[in-house]
Write a structure and sequence with these properties.
The chain has one domain. About 35% of the residues lie in helices and about 30% in strands. Strands 1-2 form a two-stranded antiparallel ribbon. A hairpin with a 7-residue loop joins β1 and β2. It is flat, with a radius of gyration of 15 Å. The mean pLDDT is about 90.
Length: about 50
């Protein structure tokens, strides 16, 4: 929550692969917002769980 209070700037790197020839990487950057709506929280958690 400190990140959101400090402006919400977030980033993440997700990678897969075990050799340089087959590594895939995604970098995400953006702004985070706190979600207080319980229905929206549940929906977002369901979407994450699907992956």
């Amino acid at each position: 929550m400190e990140v959101i209070d400090a402006g919400g700037r977030v980033s993440a790197v997700i990678d897969e692969g075990d050799e340089i020839s087959n590594v895939r990487v995604v970098q995400l950057e953006g702004t985070a917002n706190q979600v207080d709506d319980p229905e929206l929280v549940e929906q977002l958690l369901d979407l994450v769980a699907e992956k």
